[in-house]
Amino acid sequence: MGKAKVTFQRVPFETNGAWRSPIPVRDGDVQIWGIVLDVAHSELPRAASILSHDERERAGRLISEEHRRRSIAAHAMLRAILSRYCGASPDQLAIRRTSDGKPVLSDYPSIRFNLTHSHGRALIAVARDREVGVDLEQVRREVDVVRLARRFLSERDLTCIEGGDPAQRHERFLKAWVAREAVFKADGRGMTFPLDRDYLELTGDGTEGCLVLGSAGSDEKRRRVHFLSLSSGWIGAVAAEGTDWTVTVCNVSESQINRGT
Questions:
Q1: Which of 73, 94, 127, 157 is placed for a possible disulfide with 106 were both Cys, Cβ 3.0 to 4.6 Å?
Q2: What is the mean pLDDT of the chain?
Q3: What is the pLDDT of residues 15-69, one digit of tens each?
Q4: 140-227 — its CATH code?
Q5: Are both 8-130+245-260 and 140-227 of the same fold?
Q6: Dist. CA 33–CA 35, nearest whole Å
Q7: What count of other Cβ atoms lies within 10 Å of the Cβ of residue 134?
Q8: According to the CATH classification, is domain 8-130+245-260 in 3.40.50.720?
Q9: Rounded mean pLDDT of 112-123?
Q10: Which of 15, 11, 7 is nearest to 32 (CA)?
Q11: How far apart, in whole angstroms, are the C-alpha atoms of residue 117 and residue 149?
Q12: Where are the domains of the chain?
């Protein structure tokens, strides 16, 4: 079976009772949702109404109106999706943050999740009893990625980025970047500098990788990363605890949730 492509879709804030039939999550399954964050101004009050007080405050502190709108949309759609796993209304979900800042579901601790958003698009990863992290970046050709790689990344990463087809340098740089973000988020921490202590090993076809942490090469220091199949111009990756997990792509339709692997 071919690798399923993640399609960015709009998730309705109104779940129409969808939480009454929770989505099952198999052991070893990491489920991925692609989200479009375009929200009309008239929809913002409804979206904000299902957020917690803290979520509304965090969005309100953003300077840009566009960033505020997308933050509200991202967290409202996250709640709409999580409600389908928990069997609860989106506005009733209690989401707290750990001491490291990682969001968790207070009443459904077995459901682990992670959210990332960039330039009006978002990815959500969901698993059961397994920490997950996900990251998404838009390819921007105007950025000097070789300069950034020399400044921040390891010599091995730089060699990979500079080698091969020059037209794919941005993609190779972003794979090294999102791999770190996904692993660090799965571990419950933000991007940890310096980044040149770690390096990314890619499989032959580039769909899987291993982030080698520090100078040690033991299994405990090697973290599996799965690169997602996305629309042209986007690079995304997911990481999870252990190595015995597979990725399932979830799609929203008007009447049901369709799942493809």
A1: 94
A2: 90
A3: 555 556 788 999 999 999 999 998 888 889 999 999 999 999 999 999 999 999 9
A4: 3.90.470.20
A5: yes
A6: 6
A7: 28
A8: no
A9: 97
A10: 7
A11: 22
A12: 8-130+245-260, 140-227
